[in-house]
Amino acid sequence: MVASRDLPCPSEPLPGRSGAGIAEPIVALAERWADLLVEGHAGLSGRLEVLLRRLSTVLRTEPFRPVAARPVGAALLDTGLAEGDGPLPEDLIPPTLSLLRRDLPGVLDLPTPQGADRLVTALDEFVAGFTAALRERSRPAAHPDARLECAMADCELHYRTLYLQGPVGIGIGDLDGQVLEMNPALYRMFGLLAPPELPRPVTDFVHPDDAVGFIESYHRLRADTGPDSVGIDVRLVRVDELVVWVHVTGSLIRDAAGKPSHVIAVVQDVSDRHRLRSRLEQAASQDRLTRLPNRVVSEQMLRQAFLPGVAHRVGLCALDVDGFTSVNDGLGHQAGDQLLLAVAGRLQMAAGPHLVTRTGGDEFGVLVLEPDGLDDVCRVADRLLTALAAPFHIGGQAVTVSASIGVAEAATAEACPEELMRAADVALSWAKAHGGGERVVFDPERDAGEAARFALLAGLRGAVDRSELQLAFQPLVRLRDGRVRGAEALVRWQHPEQGLLGPGRFIGLAEHNGMIIPIGRWVLAEACRTAAVWWTELGPGSPYVSVNVSPLQLADPDWVREVSAVLEETGLPAEKLQLEITEQAVLGDEAVALDALDALRAAGVRLALDDFGIGYSSLAWLRRLPVHALKIDGSFIDGLRHPSPDPVDQSIVHALIEMAHALGLEVTAEWVETAVQSDRLSRLGCDLGQGRWFGDPGPATWVAELWRRTIR
Ligand code: C2E
Ligand code: MG
Ligand code: MG
Known about the structure:
- By secondary structure, this protein is of the alpha/beta class.
- The protein is built from 26 helices and 22 strands.
- It folds into four domains: 157 residues, no CATH class; 118 residues, 2-Layer Sandwich (Beta-Lactamase); 156 residues, Reverse transcriptase/Diguanylate cyclase domain (Alpha-Beta Plaits); 248 residues, TIM Barrel (Alpha-Beta Barrel).
- Helix 11 packs antiparallel against helix 12.
- Bound molecules: ligand C2E and magnesium ion (MG) (2 copies).
- Ligand C2E binds next to strand 15, helix 16, helix 17 and strand 19.
- This is Bifunctional diguanylate cyclase/phosphodiesterase.
- It comes from Pseudonocardia hispaniensis.
């Protein structure tokens, strides 16, 4: 417990120079003061000397009552200094404050910091007293509402209390950015116990990194065209060099004529808010489970690696745990979390100095700075895979997992972070598609191929609507007499940029994503319209049209109905339409396919099995198919082109023809390119030929023309 005698006695004056010791300096100060206010009127100094003595008493009396300085301020107005030719009363205050703040502590020998603190507070009260007296003097003799006046005085008192004792910092500056005044709360924010020497440029108080934004706001405010008030978060630098985050609200003060005269800044300490924000930012950058940096950080680090002078080469491994969902589903989420934690640990060990990040649920990344080329990054990837190979022990069970890794590496001068990230991700998707458990290195050529296919696919979607598809017709010629019996419709795509594309470029893609359904629908309708024209123009012997059918179409339950509808719409007799199907199409869902084919056959549509011979169909299976014709694949016919034909091909073709005939099927040979092939096939009993020898695919009119020529 502190003994009461150790406490300062209430009446004990503040230490400092007193009595006779201050007489001379006070007189001198009073003279300087008088001279400052009204040049050459040092004679008035006697009155000011009285004021100085009164102020001295206020400052040194215990307990300190700053409000006692008010009547002293009021008395300044009564000195007569601002009368007659003298200055305006309000012009007395600024020079008075500067002088007293600067010289009074020395004259009274006030101890720092306590005395300086008192001086500031006392001078504030001094000013309050002066302004109150001034207002009182200028008040009309009979004020209509004395209560309002009282309320205003109360209000001012409140403001002053707020200014002097409130927790909010308040500063006043001029329009040139010089700070003129600071309240105690504000200079305490700087770690000061007394106000700093003022005026000083406002930028002296702001962190250099925030100065530009701060000055901008200041300019905006004083421009007088923008808002009267602006708010900004800035850092202040304390005297002990600590940084304080504050929110500054600057407002423009206008003079009686409405012209901007000063800026008042209300300054709030918001360090807590910023500390919280930085904690949140940290939380947002760290994966909560593994404590590894998350995707955001991973991307930031990668970007930094590409900054000039950081690294010449950068490698990236994108890792995905294979089958993690089944661990989660099978053993529960808690076990899943444990596994991820264990995986993260092993990866960190295996990665050594390289940064490991968790980029997604079961996805991790390893950033390799300055590798000795791609092989180096691959070695890191291999270490990661090896590290995960041994079983994990989760919840008493041994759990084995594998992972897929996409590896990418680049010179920082030749690539950008986004490219590298994408490359690693693409390579990872290849590794996954390949079954997982391995690392795959990004291959730009493979990527370009896929990108091109992807772009093609995107364009294919609107190709039908934009009428970019067209049909070419290739004659199917009877070998016996050279007559055109039919024509195969072959689709082409007039690509807006790439020109005319054959079906090999896009049919596979279209089958992959289902676009073949609308394409096939268009082909069928267009082919039937064409054949209907032939039929109308050439009569009952006109060529039939042979249309290729994709497995997806055959499996589509609406398809048979669509075929009938097209025949009806175009008026084409069913027997003038042949549909080419492949073994593959029937093998998908055989029962559905056979039902569809039976229905079509019953409707009178011709059916042909295309590309026959390259599949695995047995004779017994072939018997079950309700087809009318077989088209022997062109690869067998190729062997018949030479003067001494390939005996195997010849035997196969011969056997196929015999077999087909035995089943009552008509036989067409594809890719007949020469007269020799045509003759041989004819001798082997083949019914029809199709190929370059009879004509490449061409326009519909050309087929009709050929038919007319060969029919005679
Ligand atoms: P495919 O049904 O076997 O069609 C025969 C292919 O052989 C055609 O190729 C044709 O131009 C080509 N060809 C014709 N004569 C000769 C020749 O003497 N020598 C050689 N080497 N080839 C010849 P194209 O037009 O490129 O069509 C390729 C494949 O695209 C077609 O094979 C067919 O499977 C598919 N296709 C074409 N149009 C369509 C269609 O509208 N729908 C569906 N689903 N597939 C189509
Ligand atoms: Mg075909
Ligand atoms: Mg074919």
